Amino acid sequence: MTRSVPMLDLAHQHRAVETLVAEGFARVMAASSYILGPEVDAFEREFAAFCGVPHVVGVGNGTDAIELALRAAGVGRGDSVVIPANTFVATAEAVVRAGASVVLADCGDDYLLDVDDLRMRLNPRVRAVVAVHLYGQTADVDGIRAVAGPGVVVVEDAAQSQGAKYRGRRSGSLGDVAGTSFYPGKNLGAYGDAGAVSTGSAEIAERVRALRNHGGLHKYEHLEVGTNSRLDSLQAVVLSAKLSLLDGWNAERRRLAHRYTARLEELPGVATPIVRPGNEPVWHQYVVRVPERDRVLAALTEAGIGAGIHYPTPVHLLPAFAPLDNPRGSFPVAEAAADHILSLPIYPGLADSDQDYVIETLATALRPSGVLR
Ligand SMILES: *Cc1c(COP(=O)(O)O)cnc(C)c1O
């Protein structure tokens, strides 16, 4: 009898919204209206209220959301944009796609952009900083703003942080503009690709509305070269249904995270996540640092546990970003993290008994007697 604990259980989420989704899909099909439309308008309003911002614009995916957020904020050719070295590659791609140059900065021991390191990377060409709320914990947006100064746009990469709070404010409302992703595995996930831009600025929102739809707000109006990155009605139905349950799901992730921390901080060699004061993470990932990470990961995999590494290679060491010319050693904290981090299963629907199995398997793998030499 082999036991298995997946990395994520999307079927559990689907069961909770099945009826709402079926009714919504029937509505969309009856109206034969598949792109944008009333379902998208409704979701944009609901997600804006959730984030505490006046404007949300639904787009095709999270990478486009960040690119269009940058472009709409006036960032482009000739500009530099600082992002953390430890992020999903999409953050860097969005900067390049916007026409700007990537400048990397190191992270701190909480895996979030290190404000002191950011200070050293600033130069007159830096027009924006992307604050990546990695693993569901918000970056220090106020600190970033203070260091970067008033001329620099603060863009949030909120792909992993729907519902997270920073000093009482929600992810997506903390910077000048934010891009988020509703890739199926995110805390708020669609049934395909989807994303959104949120902002307090009517001007930025209006420009994203045009950019996502071939550069215009009306048919055959093309004010600038935009793209096709519209949210579709079926995804909006799923997102509205799941949004109504998101706070509960995030509370469940929080409960599981506290359970992990209580047990794992007693294990020698394990570093549990550091949460900055004022932060309420939503635990998109629960990431520990362990010695002999690859061996420990192999032991978990062998035991049927869906653990992972987010991310195994920092941006500057990816072949695609070799032209940045940041050799190994450029971002020591991010590089050391990449060698030792391990993401454990965390999701609404993870049974306590399955979580206990993960904890016990990890404890055994870490015990010297459990090591095969
Ligand atoms: C998922 C993700 C993105 C990109 O979102 P897509 O919808 O996959 O394009 C960007 N940044 C981070 C940190 C992500 O986790």
UniProtKB/TrEMBL annotation:
Record: active site: K186
Source taxon at top rank: Bacteria
Stored Pfam families: DegT_DnrJ_EryC1
GO BP terms: polysaccharide biosynthetic process
N6-(pyridoxal phosphate)lysine found at: K186
InterPro entries named among the record's database cross-references: DegT/StrS_aminotransferase, PyrdxlP-dep_Trfase, PyrdxlP-dep_Trfase_major, PyrdxlP-dep_Trfase_small
Keyword line: Pyridoxal phosphate
MF terms (GO), sorted A to Z: pyridoxal phosphate binding; transaminase activity
PANTHER family according to UniProt: 3-OXO-GLUCOSE-6-PHOSPHATE:GLUTAMATE AMINOTRANSFERASE (PTHR30244:SF36), TRANSAMINASE (PTHR30244)
Similarity annotation: Belongs to the DegT/DnrJ/EryC1 family.
Protein name: dTDP-4-amino-4,6-dideoxygalactose transaminase
